[in-house]
Amino acid sequence: MSLADLHSLSDRPRPKLGKPRPSILVKAEAGRKAKRAAAKLRADVRARDGHQCQCCHIPVFVSATNPLQRAQVHHITYRSQGGPDVQKNLITVCGECHAKIHAHEIEVRGTHAASVRFMRKAKP
Ligand SMILES: [Zn+2]
Known about the structure:
There is one protein chain. By secondary structure, this protein is an alpha+beta fold. It has a domain at about 50-124. It has helices spanning about 5-10, 25-50, 95-100, and strands at about 70-75, 90-95, 105-110, 115-120. A two-stranded antiparallel sheet has the order 1-2. A two-stranded antiparallel ribbon has the order 3-4. Zinc ion binds near residues 56, 58 and 93.
């Protein structure tokens, strides 16, 4: 008895045959590819910025043991606000400046990496 014969005996609807889903291995490879592309983009941004925090100008390193000196890449227009993962929307900062930016102690003015300015806010 074939599969079609078995389905004809059942009251249950036959499964629809559509486009096959990508296997978990295909999805995993796509995920690895995306991670590699994101890592390359961050490395390109750090190289463009001379491996220096663009706010306080200290040298920064990816593997710095002190998290405040670790190189981080900041989205000028936040991802949550639709900021794209492209070089002109990314800028290298140290961990300390990055934390202050997100704590609104430093304001980032400008819309792309070439024209960005950092303004320290006075404490009330
Ligand atoms: Zn800094």
